[in-house]
Amino acid sequence: MNYYETDSEFVKIMEHFVLEEVVIEPGQELQKDIRYLAILAALMGCQGTEVYREVLPRALDEGLTPVMVKEMIYQAVDYLGIGRVMPFLEAANDILTARGVKLPLAGQATTTAENRLEKGAEAQAEIFGAHMKEAWKAGHINRWLAANCFGDYYTRGGLDLKQRELITFCFLAAQGGCEPQLTAHAKGNMNLGNDKDFLIRVVSQCLPYIGYPRSLNAINCVSKAAEA
Known about the structure:
Layout: H1 3-6, H2 8-24, H3 32-45, H4 49-61, H5 66-80, H6 82-98, H7 116-128, H8 140-154, H9 161-175, H10 179-192, H11 196-210, H12 212-227
C-alpha cells in the first residue's frame, strides 16, 4: 500500500520525527551501525516485521554485515521464542538473497556439545559477575540458560559480548513485561562498558519503533540498574 497517497499527513509527521528529529537530537546520537543494530533488535522485540523489512536494507548500507544480522536473529530465539523469530529469519533471507549474498553464511560456532555449559557459564560470569559461574546448578532451566542461551549463542562469532548484551536489552525493552530481566541486562550492559548514558541513547533511538510506554519503562530500568 502506498501510504504517501492514503495517509500523507501521518507519513509527514512520522518521517520528520523518526528520520530527522530523533536522529539529530543533541546528546542522543549513536554510531550508525550501532543505531541500526539496536533498531532492528527492537523491531524484533515488538514484532514489527513490515518495518523490519524496510529498515534492514538501510542497516546493511550503513555498515551492518550479513553475519551481524543473522547472529542477532539467532540470539533472539532465546528471548522472543522461535514462533516470533521465524518471520524475521525469512525476511532477512529474502533481503540478503536479493542482494546477492550467498547463504548459508560461514559458521560462527565456537563451542561443542561437551563444553557449551562450561563456556556459557563463563560468559554469564563475565557479564553479570563471578557468582553466575555456579548459577546453572539451581535447576534444569538455569542449566539450559547457561548451556543454550549463553553457551550456544553468546559465545558465537559475528558479535562481541557488548553487542550481544545491547541487542538483548533491546529485545526485552521492546517486548515489554520483562522489566526484572531488563534491569538485570541493563546492569550487564553497564558491566561491559555500555553505560547509562549509552543505554538512554539507545532507548531514544528506538522510541519511534516501540512507543513511549515501553521506552519510559526501559529508562526506569536503566536508572534502577545504575543505582544497584
